[in-house]
Design a protein that fits this description.
Number of strands: 0
Helix content: over 70%
Number of domains: 1
Order of helices and strands: HHHHHHHHHHHHHH
Strand content: under 5%
Shape: globular
Radius of gyration: 20 Å
Largest sheet: none
Distance between the termini: 35 Å
């Protein structure tokens, strides 16, 4: 399963929400940043395992239903295919693209984000496709920003739909807690719909967005105003790639089957290890996982696992050891196949991790230039 500068990056398996980080200079030294993130990962893993019976967790994982796990892997690759198809819709104004190169770039980029620092796959993915299809790299990169916004809106709308239309089956949950989550989840969904309408309007008139930002920030100190205006400029550049609101709406329409497939993966793997929840319950767990993967640890390790454990135990009354085992298996279902497929595709393309890392740094420096 999925990293929102962007310090809210993502699990890069089936779940990946946050837009690429602002492509400016990083003031923290790489070795210090990596040390902090690894330390954070270890703390989260410790919290995740603190009450687990490791022998029982291993039994839960070892006895997982292989057919359901395999179906979860199938959902993973179906989600990558849907991402590639949606990406083609967004790239159409830039030129013709082919499904095969878009899919290969998607898988390689997600695999690279697991193992390269700073979630480099979010830059590598558009770089690889632009190189293969002869497109402008900077313009292709801007589509990733819009893609992440579409993901964010879709997850919030699905969360609101879960609370509005489906029987949540949260019998193990405290009624007051459930009402709080339901209220805020529904409000967030409505806000996402309103935000999407505004986004479509801004897509048609990105110049108007810049004028509005300039008018609203005129009272701020000059330095802060430049920062906000610069961010708005990057956002407007991304919207310029999909000026047609109808095309943006079509890309949003592709987002719903994509996230239903991701929810199906969560449900299948949960059931495979004995965490019982209704199929629609995966929509709630999916939204909570988005919060967990906002913690920018390597490969989303720790944040992803603890978010799933808390969701499964608090909302669906799952046994802690089963929830821990399910979180590990679910993460592995997104992590291992993606790495294997990404490594194979990189070998076919004549690429190496060293080469990809260098290209990601170069692309980041170029985007940071005024």
């Amino acid at each position: 399963m999925q990293d929102p500068g962007q310090r809210h990056v993502v699990w890069t398996g089936p779940i990946a929400l946050a837009p690429p980080r602002p492509l400016g200079p990083n003031r923290m030294r790489p070795w210090l940043r990596n040390t902090v993130l690894v330390a954070l990962m270890l703390v989260l893993v410790g919290v995740f395992l603190r009450n687990a019976n490791l022998a029982e967790v291993w039994h839960v994982m070892r006895t997982a239903h292989p057919g359901l796990v395999a179906a979860g892997v199938g959902c993973l690759f179906a989600s990558y295919a849907l991402r590639a198809l949606r990406w083609q819709v967004m790239l159409a104004p830039l030129g013709r693209t082919h499904f095969g190169p878009a899919l290969r770039a998607t898988v390689i980029g997600f695999a690279a984000s697991f193992i390269l620092p700073a979630r480099a796959g979010e830059i590598l993915r558009p770089w690889l496709l632009a190189r293969r299809e002869g497109l402008d790299t900077a313009a292709v990169i801007t589509t990733i920003i819009i893609e992440r916004l579409l993901d964010f809106v879709t997850v919030l709308v699905l969360l609101a739909s879960f609370f509005t239309f489906f029987d949540p089956g949260l019998s193990a949950m405290d009624p007051a807690m459930f009402q709080t989550v339901r209220t805020w989840g529904t409000r967030a969904g409505y806000a996402a719909v309103a935000g999407m309408a505004a986004l479509m309007g801004a897509a048609a008139r990105p110049d108007l967005l810049l004028r509005i930002v300039a008018a609203l920030t005129g009272w701020l100190p000059a330095r802060l105003r430049r920062v906000i205006t610069g961010l708005a400029g990057q956002f407007a550049a991304g919207l310029a790639v999909v000026r047609d609101p109808a095309r943006l709406a079509l890309a949003l329409a592709w987002s719903f089957p994509l996230w239903f497939i991701i929810a199906a993966q969560i449900w299948l793997v949960s059931m495979a290890v004995g965490v019982t929840l209704p199929p629609t319950g995966a929509l709630l767990i999916m939204a909570i996982l988005v919060v967990g993967v906002a913690v920018p640890t390597p490969g989303a390790v720790g944040g992803f696992h603890e978010a799933y454990r808390v969701a499964a135990t608090a909302f669906f009354g799952a046994d802690n050891d089963h929830a821990v085992g399910a979180a590990i298996v679910l993460h592995a279902v997104g992590f291992v196949p993606t790495l294997v497929a990404g490594a194979w595709l990189m070998a076919r393309e004549g690429l190496s991790l060293t080469h990809l890392g260098a290209e990601a740094q170069r692309a980041t420096r170029e985007e940071a230039r005024p």
